[in-house]
Structure formats: structure tokens, C-alpha cells
Design goal:
The protein has 13 helices and 12 strands. The protein has 400 residues and is an alpha/beta fold. The protein has 2 domains: 142 residues, no CATH class; 245 residues, 4-Layer Sandwich (Purple Acid Phosphatase, chain A, domain 2).
């Protein structure tokens, strides 16, 4: 039942904060149980609801879950950092004590017992002001992060410069929506606000770069119907992300088509704005292979496409961008990373995506844009210093 990696912060905080605290045995048991529930929220959702990817819980409960889980992880990081500092400081003092001297101006080295007490004392034994400061440092930023996670994404205006762009395509506006993650957290009203914000920009083309939904059609149709209101002269196109496969891929592909989204599944379409050809291609996701379905295939996607026309590629994951540049993409739009969601986590996410986590990248001359997403997975609704967005690109011809 338990997820293994959250047991690390659970046991560390249990032995560092709960057990050394000056409170009765009953209170310690209660705190330990609360800590276990908070750190094992994902496992509990899967066990009780049978669904990790799309837990159907009230929005307020998902937000509280995410808030407390993030707060526990942040607390773990702070306590671990404090302990590492105290350990290094103790070793430094012990080293000078063995040499028979102390650094100039420093107090005399403490006894070994004092070193152990300094390095192993629990933070809950500190002064009340320190406990309040610690609680504020943990609970405040994470509460703000939850608010940012469920906010309607802001608009981001960008220029995309393509080397092979025809003069007739100069000034075309392309709106990208990525990682909507329609769920019991990000519901119809939220999706409707995103659609209204995109339509208000009057883009020439709208593209969705995967992870539109969490949960099967019978549970998300009320939200999904809002996508039918997306309007652009050149059309509304989409590729799929990994969460479409978790949520019932065949059914969603059919539903998206009925809602007016042109699905590019290892395929392409040729647009002719201004009478000049522009290729728009889209790929499937690598997780498709675990479901016995075709994974991303650029050769199949580009079969029959005019070689002279520039190609805008929609691929949910950005990590294969160097390969896509070699395979003929002129501009790639991706998502998947959610921008890393928060400092610290951002570096981990980057390492799993070939360093492409958020914003612009030049990949062997091909511009790649990685959206931090409009939404995110409802099981971990946190954004700290990584706001959500809707991007609108104005196409420009790059100077030779």
C-alpha cells in the first residue's frame, strides 16, 4: 500500500521532530499518524479511490492534501539542511579541539555531549519564536503555491523566429495551451475561463500540446465540452500526452474529434495561410507503447508532407527535441514539465527532460518552446515561482 520514497521524509521527521518533542505518548502517536497520512496521500488516494492519476475528491480536499504534502516535504528539506549544517559545524569545532586550538575569536569548543545535543536536538524543542518562524516558512509558501496552481493562467506574448518562414506567414498568431489536466480540481468553470482568455486573443491557430485531461470521458465531459468553444481561422489542433493514455485514450481521441479538435497522432496537416504551405505535425507519447499503441514516429507524421514548407511540431515531451530538429522540424512546441513547479523540484524535472524544463531553447538552430502549462495534475497542486500560462506566438522570419 505504501509508496516507498515518501517514507524517507516520514521517518526522518518522525525521529527528528515528533519523538524528541516534549509531549505525551498519545500526542506523539497522533502526530505520527497525521504525518503518515500527509506523506502517504498518493498511496491513500490509490487505495481508497483506485485512481492515482485522477482522484475524484472535492477541490478543497485536493488543495489541502497538496498543501500539507508540500509543507511536509519542505519541512524535511529544512530540517535536513539544518542537521547537515550542525553536523559540519560540530565536525569543524571537534577538529580544532583536537588540534588544541580554536578559530580566532570563536568560543571554546564544546564537549562531545554538547556536540551531540546540538546536532541531534529536535526543532520542536527550540524556542516558541523559532517554532513559529519555522511553521511560517513551511506553511506560507506552500499555501501560496496552491493558490498559484489553481489560478487561471496568465497570457504570455512571444515571438517565434523560423528560418524557413514564408513572407506570407509573417505575423501569424499561434496560441498554445498545454497541460490543462481537466479534473475534479480544475473543473468546468476554470476550463471555461481558459477558453475565454484564448479566444479573446483572436489567434489564427490554436494548438494543444497534450495532457488535456485526467479521468475518463464519463467523469470529465462537462469540462471537456468547453473546448468546443475554441475558435481560430486556421483551426484547433492537438497532440496527446501521457495522461490521455491513463484516462482512456481511444475514448478521448473520439471525444476530442467530436468537440472540434483535429488530432495529430503521428500525422500532419498542411495549412495554406496567405496561399503558402505550412506544415503542422503532431506525435503520440512514448507511454503509448506500454498500452500496445504506436509510440511517437516522426517519419510517419511527415509522410507526404511538402519538404519545402516549414514544419511546426507538436510533441508533449520536449526531451527528444535534438532528434526532431534533425528530422526536419522548424519549430517545436511542448509541455509536460509544468516548468518544474517549484525550485528544487525544477532541477529534478529538468534532468528527466534533457534539460528542457521551461521557456525558449535553441536546439541545433530549431526553436523549442516548453510551456509550464495552463494546469497541472490535481494530486500535487503546487506552483512556486513557476506561474501557469497561455502562450501566444507571433511568427517571424529569422535573419539568415
Amino acid at each position: 500500500m505504501f509508496f516507498l520514497w515518501p517514507l524517507i521524509p516520514f521517518f526522518y521527521l518522525l525521529f527528528r521532530l515528533v519523538l524528541p518533542a516534549r509531549m505525551g505518548a498519545g500526542a506523539k502517536v497522533l502526530c505520527a499518524l497525521l504525518l503518515l497520512v500527509v506523506t502517504q496521500a498518493f498511496a491513500i488516494n490509490r487505495f481508497l479511490l483506485g485512481d492515482l492519476a485522477a482522484p475524484d475528491l472535492p477541490p478543497w480536499l485536493l488543495m489541502v492534501q497538496g498543501w500539507l504534502f508540500a509543507a511536509a516535504i519542505l519541512l524535511f528539506v529544512l530540517v535536513l539542511a539544518r542537521d547537515a549544517f550542525l553536523l559540519l559545524r560540530g565536525c569543524w569545532r571537534l577538529l580544532f579541539r583536537r588540534k588544541g586550538a580554536s578559530p580566532a575569536g570563536s568560543p571554546a569548543s564544546p564537549s562531545r555531549r554538547e556536540l551531540v545535543r546540538a546536532g541531534c536536538g529536535g526543532l520542536l524543542l527550540a524556542r516558541p519564536a523559532e517554532r513559529i518562524a519555522l511553521a511560517a516558512a513551511v506553511l506560507g509558501p506552500t499555501a501560496f503555491g496552491v493558490g498559484e496552481a489553481v489560478a487561471v493562467p496568465a497570457l504570455r506574448e512571444e515571438e517565434a523566429r523560423l528560418r524557413r518562414l514564408a513572407p506570407e506567414h509573417e505575423g501569424l498568431r499561434v496560441a498554445q495551451i498545454s497541460d490543462l489536466h481537466m479534473s475534479s480540481l480544475l473543473t468546468r468553470d476554470w476550463v471555461a475561463a481558459v477558453v475565454d482568455r484564448v479566444n479573446a486573443q483572436k489567434p489564427d491557430l490554436i494548438v494543444l500540446t497534450g495532457d488535456m485531461v485526467d479521468g475518463p470521458p464519463e467523469r470529465r465531459m462537462e469540462s471537456a465540452r468547453e473546448l468546443s468553444r475554441l475558435k481560430a481561422p486556421l483551426g484547433v489542433f492537438a497532440c496527446v500526452g501521457n495522461h490521455e493514455y491513463y484516462s482512456g485514450y481511444p475514448a478521448w481521441v473520439r471525444v476530442f474529434g467530436e468537440l472540434g479538435l483535429h488530432m495529430l497522432l503521428n500525422g500532419h496537416t498542411v495549412l495554406t495561410p496567405g496561399g503558402k504551405e505550412l506544415v503542422l505535425a503532431g506525435l503520440t507519447d512514448p507511454v503509448a507503447r506500454t498500452f500496445g499503441l504506436p509510440g511517437p514516429d516522426m517519419e510517419a507524421a511527415m509522410a507526404g508532407a511538402p519538404a519545402h514548407a516549414p514544419c511546426i511540431l507538436l510533441e508533449h515531451r520536449p526531451g527528444f527535441a535534438p532528434l526532431r530538429a534533425r528530422q526536419g522540424a522548424d519549430f517545436q512546441l511542448s509541455g509536460h514539465t509544468h516548468g518544474g513547479q517549484a525550485p528544487g523540484l525544477r532541477e529534478i524535472v529538468s534532468s528527466f527532460n534533457n534539460g528542457y524544463v521551461r521557456g525558449w531553447f535553441d536546439v541545433d538552430g530549431m526553436p523549442l518552446y516548453v510551456s509550464p502549462g495552463a494546469g497541472l495534475w490535481g494530486g500535487f497542486p503546487i506552483r512556486i515561482a513557476t506561474p501557469s500560462e497561455i502562450a501566444v506566438f507571433t511568427l517571424r522570419r529569422a535573419e539568415a
